[in-house]
Amino acid sequence: MNDFKVIIFGFFLLLTNVFNAQINQYHSDGTRHGLWEKKYEGTEQLRYTGNFDHGVEIGDFKFYSKGFPKQPSAIKSFSDNGRKALVKYYAQNGKLISKGMLVNKKREGKWEYYHNTNAKLMMVENYVADLLEGERLSYYDNGRVSEKVTFIDGKKEGKEVVYTLKGVLYKVFTYKNGLLEGENKYYNGKGELVIEGVYKDNKKTGVWSYYENGKLVREKRYK
Prior knowledge:
The chain is mainly beta. It is 9% helix and 59% strand.
């Protein structure tokens, strides 16, 4: 190796050592500070990379799935002194899968999920302190609503309505505190009633009626 190659090699070795010395550092107060990177054990592939300010996550943290080093599987954008983080999850082709806000590491507010066939919404949920709260809407990939249901404290409450791909009413369930409770109805592809009955404590009760072409054809009684 001639002198020029030795100098170049030494220069790059020096740069590598300087860079490595600048990551995964602790402040004098014992907290993580500056750029941190973690790799999968026994490999050179990044597991995550991001910056700390006296132990608090700041800015964008990028996370990678093992075996996929180029495209982040998730990006968390921190704000409010690390208390909040906008989270985005991605497929390996870079397509957005879902996004939403974490507050104190718990889901909060609106979360959106997307179809893998296109960029259209698949589902919209709302959270309060990591529990589902309010209306959840689901969509077919043609944009039509497939389901509507309401949550209170993470449990289904009231009517759950299901539609066909063409927008025809298909099912209506009734919930109380997360259990089937009350009137439930099933419809055919034309929107005609075919079955109706009542649930109590998640079990069928009373008389259930069955229809064909709009006419009652059978009844069955449950205890």
